[in-house]
Amino acid sequence: MDLLQSWRAMVLLCLLLPGGRPSPCGVAISPEEPAVELGSSVVLNCTSSCGNYSQLGWEVSVQKMLAQGPGWVSLHIPSVSDWHLDLQCFGVFGKQRDIAVTTLHGYRLPLPQIDLGEEMVAGREARVACNVSSRLLPPGPLDLELTLTLSAGGRTLSTARGRPWLVHGFTARPEQDGQEVTCEALLHLGRRWVNASAAATLRVWAAPYGVNVSATPDPFAAGENLTVTCRVQGNPPPQLRWELPSNASLELRDGNATVAVRGAGRQHSGTYRCLAANRYGAGAARADVGFRGEVPAGSPRSPLVPVAVALAVVVALAAVAGLWYLSHARGWRPMQEGARPG
């Protein structure tokens, strides 16, 4: 096989292989099917896949500005005013004319408005509403999705599609106070999604709950310092008051949450009842505190006690020593029953 035949065979092979045949010239638009907020500007590019074009241009019915370079021509629309605008880019390659078509979507997507309704109280029914002004949305059927999400764990509360409003009902809980709820709006425009979101903070009021009373030490001994504490939750913080077995020698601390007794006695034993209240309700709890009656080992004692004990021991030993001296040194004997004196 001579050189010419070999070259012809290679050309034929290239034409038969996938991708070996040269592709025809064409044009392409970038970005494809753009979404632009009304009133803003946009720039689109039309490019040629071949260098042997004789003409590149745009066909559009609005005010435009063109710029051109080797293999490309750009379209600048300074202010988009149409909800939908069909655009055409064309290229002429000898007798061939290639056209690329796209649609420009104009939109306005306002921030969602969140309505938390009336005040939320724990244990009662509550609602959260979200809406987007339909006057600012494109005409015709809406491809709009609204989603309500709670900040705690990113949990989705509710979703609605095809309408500009959403309402979610639930039973309010105390732990939801201070959590953030977010409403996100997703608007589908051709091949594009545009979104807007807003957030609001939940305020959940609660009657007193979780009321608990504890005492330290319990039981207590005479002379010990006694502390009784009331723990409670609620929003707003509940006001506390006590029903006590005795008002002697006590002090209220920590906004009435703690009863402190110095040198407690028997009169301080009994029932300690804590009463909690706010404008949404009331709650109560109690603790029965016992009395041991004696100071436990290791408790602080008066410094006079050891002195008195030592003095008593000394007196007892002196008395025993005196009796022993009288009975042995002077011959004294105790008188036997029935014996006569002298």
TrEMBL record:
Keyword set, alphabetical order: Membrane, Signal, Transmembrane, Transmembrane helix
UniProt xrefs under CDD domains: Ig (cd00096)
PROSITE patterns the record matches: IG_LIKE (PS50835)
Signal sequence coordinates: 1-22
Domain Ig-like: 208-290
Top-rank taxon, per record: Eukaryota
Spans traversing the lipid bilayer: 304-326
Name of the featured protein: Intercellular adhesion molecule 4 isoform X2
Source taxonomy: Eukaryota, Metazoa, Chordata, Craniata, Vertebrata
Gene: ICAM4
